[in-house]
């Protein structure tokens, strides 16, 4: 069963305290886990916790709730969870209980879900502002507590600026997600061969990512052979890949709530044709130039313009684009891509 270590718990506490610096010392944060979704019968879809709840609690479990507030200036977290059920544990495995929650997650107080209404009602007497996980939670709260005279807020947009700045916990997990995703990509490239299907590409990536420690796919895998790579969100992943075709693999793994997103294109038989290598090398040069240009103060638009200029000039050199500036007048290569006067021959 997952348990955050001491360093990770310190980061979680710091995140909560920074949030209270913005929302005020008399605010109350109310968190409820994402619901489990039935696929059919007694089978659920794979569970994924709300990202904002993970950010503040690191708890990936369903059927959990939190109250977070300051008590005489000190952070206090109440975790509500299910009591032990041995018969149910036979089907789904064990979960965190009120007797294990404080040790498991480092919270200051733990209670049973049955005690949640009374504990929440008690805490509402001491607050003027409540912050909930999303708008659905706000609507539900208003229906259950219509007499609450304070203000209601959602955490969706409020937490975005906090999550943009990565702390040690986020950095370490992002690095791990990227590392195991890269290993899975390399495994596919090293073992794929002519006569493989897109499904084999997809399956090899997932099997490697999971065995390396990934907790789930970060998003549906795109394993597109040949012309299928031109479909931006192609996920059918069943076709036979022809000899000499390129494969576009857009796939990433998630690691404890943090995702990697990697796209690579490679020949199914391990060898680029002359034309394939020319285009691949051009795209690689644009990517490398953008990475080299990244530094504090450089904007996204500046990086985009840089890559556009390299790609356009390279495609002109290869004869794939034709310069029509003599017909349409002068052109700024860094202008909006779709308004540049170049056409494909």
Structure write-up:
The chain contains twelve helices and 16 strands. The protein has 345 residues and is of the alpha+beta class. The protein has three domains: 6-164, Creatinase/prolidase N-terminal domain (Creatine Amidinohydrolase, Chain A, domain 1); 174-271, Creatinase/methionine aminopeptidase superfamily (Creatine Amidinohydrolase); 272-345, no CATH class. The strands form five sheets. It has a six-stranded mixed beta sheet with strand order 6-5-4-1-7-8. It has a three-stranded antiparallel beta sheet with strand order 9-12-13. Strands 10-11-14 form a three-stranded antiparallel beta sheet, with helices on one face. Helix 10 runs antiparallel to helix 11. It is elongated, with a radius of gyration of 26 Å. The relative contact order is 0.08. The model is unreliable at 326-330 and 336-345 (pLDDT under 50).
Short key terms for the protein model shown above:
single chain, 345 residues, alpha+beta, Creatine Amidinohydrolase, Chain A, domain 1, Creatine Amidinohydrolase, 3 domains, 6-stranded mixed sheet, 3-stranded antiparallel sheet, elongated, disordered C terminus
